[in-house]
Amino acid sequence: MSSWIQYPPTGLATLTHYSLPEGYVAACGCTPDSTKYPTAALSQMAFGSSANYGPGCGRCFKLSLLNPLVSTPPFTPDEIKSVVVKITDLCPLSQVGWCSGTTERMNSAGSQLNFDLAYPSKAIPGDFFPSDEALYGYKDFGVWNITYEAVSCLSSWQGTSNPKALGSVGALGTSACCPAEPTGNSEDTCPSYSDNNGLPPNTATSDSPMLRPIPSTLLVGLVLSWLVLR
To answer: φ and ψ at 149, to 5 degrees?
Structure first.
């Protein structure tokens, strides 16, 4: 496999979108409440792992729309729309497609990086993506050319105001890593899970109701019921 992409703090990329249910715990293991705010998946070779968490987890980026990858005639938005996202998921590497960029090749649009925005989402306005349905016959252009800029999560991401949206699910232990503000330092940045770079920093939070352990009294009851039904 190619080496992980060492990308600059600003640059060009492509933007797609995918469905992520509210409350879903994605690859990084970020808390369910993180889905109430703008999040995205990052293409695997920039994410830094082929499974679970990687150095991309928890990072925040300002994504600004430029123009659709494909539109005839060319579509130019009247205004530049931007959103600050937190990386909570990875977009798997493929031979072709938007998340196929590596250190040795670009994706189908000529970019190394692709951000896959969790959208539709209550956290993002329904008209975030500009369109001209009367002219083109559809609202969704699908893939956009964008600029990205690495930004501080604590000062830029909407979810920072909600402590329950920060950190990782405690019940996942060392299988999760979702820093509130990764800086690149080993004490606050996730290693590559697939490279087995050691234990991640402790980013667990107690605000993880979806994955709390089953109470012992309930567990005993379930076991007894199972024995009776055998």
So the answer is: -145, 120
